[in-house]
Amino acid sequence: MTPALPWWSGTVIYQLIVRSYSDGNGDGIGDFKGLAARLPYLRWLGVNTLWLTPIYPSPLRDGGYDITDFTGIHPDLGDLASFHRFLTAAHSQGMRVILDLVLNHTSDLHPWFQRARWAPKGSSERDVYVWSDDPKRYAEAPVLFRHFEASNWEWDPVAEQYYLHRFLRHQPDLNYENPWVQDTMLEVVDFWLDRGVDGFRLDAVPFLFESEGSRCEGLPETHTFLKRLRERVDRHGRDVLLLGEAIQPVQEAAPYLADDELHGAFNFVLTAHLFAAIASGRIQQLGECLMEAEQAVCGPRWALPLRNHDELWLGDGHLISDEVIQTIRVGLPQGQGHWLNWGINRRLAPLLNGDPRSNRLLHGLLYSLPGMPCLYYGDELGMGDWPGLRDRDPNRTPMAWTPARNGGFSTAPDPLLVLPPITAPGYDYRVVNVEVQKQLPGSLLNWHRRMLTCRRLLPALRHGSFRLLHSPHPGVLVYLRCTEAMTVLVAANVTAAGASLSLDLSEWAGERTREVMWGCEFPPAAAEWFVNLPPYGFNWWLIGEVEPAATPA
Length: 553
Prior knowledge:
This protein has helices at residues 18-21, 32-37, 39-45, 80-92, 111-118, 179-194, 220-234, 250-253, 268-280, 284-296, 322-331, 348-351, 356-368, 434-438, 444-457, 459-463, and strands at 13-16, 49-52, 96-102, 131-132, 153-156, 161-164, 199-203, 241-244, 264-266, 302-305, 312-313, 339-340, 343-344, 372-376, 465-468, 476-483, 486-493, 499-503, 513-515, 521-522, 529-533, 538-543. The chain is of the alpha/beta class. The protein folds into 3 domains: 13-104 and 177-455, Glycosidases (TIM Barrel); 111-164, Oligo-1,6-glucosidase, Domain 2 (Oligo-1,6-glucosidase, domain 2), CATH 3.90.400.10; 462-543, Sandwich (Immunoglobulin-like). Strands 1-2-3-7-8-9-10-14 form an 8-stranded parallel β-barrel. Helix 4 links the parallel strand 2 and strand 3 (96-102). Helix 9 (268-280) packs across helix 11. It is globular, with a radius of gyration of 24 Å. The relative contact order is 0.10.
């Protein structure tokens, strides 16, 4: 008997920022009351896992990733009771909920840090964070927020020592060499699992430990702790997803997916190569990236994002080659002038110059490649961004629901809104919103719903095997997703020109071939099977489907 697959096998993850999604009490800030009211929309869309960015108490100097209490709810969003009501409602709609868990650091306003800076040097309270008298320690660890910080160390005049911060200076790093830190963070995991959450997106997992002479990423001690975390989660006796954010090359991210560590990890290398393929009109490096990821770890364990709440991370040549970075720089001119830290600080639609064809193509690949597709809130509409806002806030503006004031996000006066709604030409919330697009059969929103419906009905796209086929066209990617009962053929043209090519389908010669989206019949599979794709066109075909039995007279 085949063992049951975990609930996250082939799931579609929808990332949202609670404070930017829907305001339920009219104070200008999204909350759990508002989010609960939007659950029917998310079920209608077809997503089945919700990833919430941090919901904890925080001074919000970094979008909530600077935490002052790991076991509370930010009062702007509600309280534990309102979170419980939301979680119960989500489960009743058949959706799972995973929380962002920031393991690496806290806010400098966290009580732990305030005790540490006033405690004597060498004391147990001071040892909760990483301190040094020499700011040149760990010199090979790159500065991640290079547009905001010149160093990974910050002088604290109260402690009279430097403290380590791999992120912003108000986010001191916890000291995982301290057993108390490890035990306490495991208790945080227990706290939320006891309240019914279904998993965690583990923020910045590579940076938990430090070592001289290294980049301080993915050290053996980090993997040892993650094994402890996995063991702790398994004690709860139910399937809990541990999804790691490791912005590292595939070969360095793969060890996190050992059988006794994490269940999934983001494939940021693939994300970069998808954009590089669109930018260059060539698929060779994308195909090589897909094969490397598949050989490193079986595909269903990779989470596949296009965009998220951060910049499109490209790195310093460590994640992807300088050649690929330059290809994206030149081929996606809408990213020029929007570089932040190590990437491009734009939402998906503006980065693609508002072209719905390349937008659909990228999501069509995302929904048909092996793994867990990740859809960022608003990208199902083609929402724009607001360049000029602080830090990464251009990508975190309120969700557009209706043409009404504030896009239906909130009834509050404009000055009270968490961020301004989008009014840029081509992306104005009075045009780009859920209510309008629901009424247009050809809208991007309805297209996403149809694609997610097809994916839900085709097990091969959720957890089938992956096989890259030879393509005679340099700009067309061709692959198969297969189960014992089903074969789906995918062809995607990443160029701005039409493409015609002949595929060798002699392995299925004579088999019925039918297009998935609209059910159109195509010629039976053959040694020379011709495909015509429009600019940025793609298609899914079922091969070998049994002909329906003739109805007796």
